[in-house]
Specification:
Elongation Factor Tu (Ef-tu), domain 3; SH3 type barrels; Rossmann fold; alpha/beta; 3 domains; 353 residues
């Protein structure tokens, strides 16, 4: 019996080739695209511009598959955009893509796919799923190290992995563009999307000025001794480890060390004051469904494009964990995710406290 797969389509080359590969493999494929929130009167959400919808529909027609569009604007605004705004209001640097994958794509959209009678849902992420002899699922990095997207998938569960297909995990980006061209898909040369999809002009600072004016109030820039060195333009506009654009003059370069939200102060210091060799994370999720033993050796990424760091992971009560880094990291940023690996395998991750 032919298995049915719903492909989350965006009009881009990755999801289009994912659909094409699954058609080639003999699945019954359905294309499903989401309309996501964008600012009223502004540019469309980059994941679902009118042109992207047209492109996705053209790809579906070329592949001979049904194609549907669903309106997720309100739930996306309440789940992802409000999370982004609230994070900055609390003085952290949130990663809304993690929440979108956890609560929209691999929760609501997955449930909708299954309600359409699908056996699986597929996406164009560059990551790999493997099942062992005991039936447990493992999530591995994508073959293309430059495009690996496993970092944003750390909240996946065993139950969800059982229903997910990632057709691109064993390909490189250049492979995917070549396949798209060979199959005459109309999106083979479409550029990759950048930045957050709901930022119409790509400038999160202007977005926050419009939607969270309380987080962009000027305040003092101080050193560890409490001496005022200048004025910041709003804590949300700075990130831990930042050196450029501080607007202060000093005999040595200064870096952002910390944000004092209660006093609206930006604390800066020298390179020697920057960096830590340990951190804790909350809202921790493990792919296996249970934490590893204490003192587990891992590599950790503290941002999507960060260099992996050797570390020791100790699970803590209350879905928290402690990480001791082999080498200090200069840009440990509250609100970003720390994601743990062993070799190619993703173990889990959590939000930096």
């Amino acid at each position: 019996m032919t298995q049915r797969v719903v492909v989350a389509m965006s009009g881009g080359v990755d999801s289009s080739v994912a659909a094409a590969l699954l058609v080639e493999q003999g699945y019954e494929v359905i294309g499903l695209m989401l309309r996501l929130w964008a600012e009223p009167g502004g540019a469309a959400n980059r994941c679902c511009t009118p042109d992207a919808v047209v492109d996705a529909r053209r790809v579906a027609a070329a592949l001979g598959i049904p194609f549907y569009v669903r309106d997720y604007k309100q739930v996306f605004k309440e789940t992802v955009v409000d999370f982004f705004i609230d994070g900055y209001a609390r003085g952290i640097t949130p990663n809304p893509c993690i929440i979108c994958n956890r609560d929209i794509r691999f929760d609501r959209l997955l449930k909708e796919a299954l309600s359409l009678g699908a056996d699986f849902m597929a996406t164009g992420h560059y990551a790999r799923i493997r099942q062992d002899r005991q039936g447990r699922y493992h999530l591995l990095k994508g073959l293309d190290a430059g495009k690996d997207q496993s970092y944003v998938l750390y909240t996946m569960t065993q139950e969800r992995l059982a229903k997910i297909l990632l057709p691109l995990g064993d390909y490189t980006k250049s492979d995917i563009r070549r396949i798209a061209a060979e199959k005459n898909l109309p999106v083979f040369n479409r550029p990759d999307s950048q930045d957050l999809c709901f930022l119409g002009n790509g400038d999160y600072r202007e977005f926050l000025r419009r939607h969270a004016a309380q987080v962009v109030q000027p305040g003092p820039i101080v050193n560890r001794a409490g001496e005022t060195l200048g004025q910041h333009q709003g804590l949300a506009f700075y990130t831990i480890g930042q050196r450029k654009g501080l607007g202060v003059t000093a005999p040595v370069p200064l870096y952002v060390l910390e944000k004092d939200v209660a006093a609206n102060r930006l604390i800066v210091g020298t390179k020697e004051e920057l960096g830590r060799d340990e951190l804790t994370v909350q809202a921790v999720s493990y792919i296996a469904g249970a934490p590893p033993p204490p003192q587990t050796a891992v590599t950790v990424k503290i941002r999507y494009k960060a260099r992996p760091i050797e570390a020791v992971l100790t699970p803590l009560p209350g879905a928290r964990a402690h990480l001791r880094l082999d080498t200090p990291a200069r840009d440990i940023t509250p609100g970003q995710s720390a994601v743990f690996y062993q070799g190619e395998e993703l173990l889990g991750g959590g939000i930096i406290e």
